[in-house]
Amino acid sequence: MPPMQREMLQGKLHRAAVTDCQLEYPGSLTVDLDLIEMCGLLVHQKIQVLNCNNGYRLETYLIPGARGKREIIVNGAAARHAYKGDRVIVAGFAFYTDEELKGHAPKVVVLNERNEVIA
């Protein structure tokens, strides 16, 4: 019997600030590649975006933004659920066996209103 796998938080950007919304872009969430790497996530990984301003939650995937620009851009249909300046949590999940979970801790990167790391 294969080991059970549990879907757990892998990493997140906590309270990132939306820098733009592009309704006509064909979907997903654009995030500065530096920020993606800091929280241990991968380009094209499935994520949840939790809007702290309006409570809306959506599922999409990450696309790389320019390094160092600190952009968080909500694209496509999801752009109807955010405004520039909204604070969001970008959470990525992964499957782990019970053995892999021993000592596991998600990478949490806390950001300020300019998407600079504060913790």
* CATH T-level topology: Barwin-like endoglucanases
Q: What is the number of independent domains?
A: 1
Number of strands: 8
Widest sheet, order of strands: 2-6-3-5-4-7-1-8
Distance between the termini: 41 Å
CATH C-level class is Mainly Beta
Q: How confident overall, as mean pLDDT?
A: 97
Alpha plus pi helix count: 2
**Percent range of helical residues:** under 10%
Strand content: over 45%
Overall form: globular
What is the succession of H and E elements?
A: EEEHEEEEHE
Unreliable runs: none
In words, what does this structure look like?
By secondary structure, the chain is mainly beta. It has one domain: Barwin-like endoglucanases (Beta Barrel), CATH 2.40.40. It is built from 2 helices and 8 strands, in the order βββαββββαβ. It has helices at 33-38, 98-101; strands at 5-17, 20-22, 29-32, 46-51, 57-65, 72-75, 87-97, 107-110. Strand 4 (46-51) and strand 5 form a beta hairpin. The longest helix has 6 residues, at 33-38. The model has no long low-confidence stretch (mean pLDDT 97).
SSE map:
Blueprint: E1 5-17, E2 20-22, E3 29-32, H1 33-38, E4 46-51, E5 57-65, E6 72-75, E7 87-97, H2 98-101, E8 107-110
Parallel strand pairs: 1-8, 2-6, 3-5
Antiparallel strand pairs: 1-7, 3-6, 4-5, 4-7
Give short descriptive properties of this protein:
8-stranded mixed sheet, 119 residues, 8 strands, Barwin-like endoglucanases, globular, mainly beta
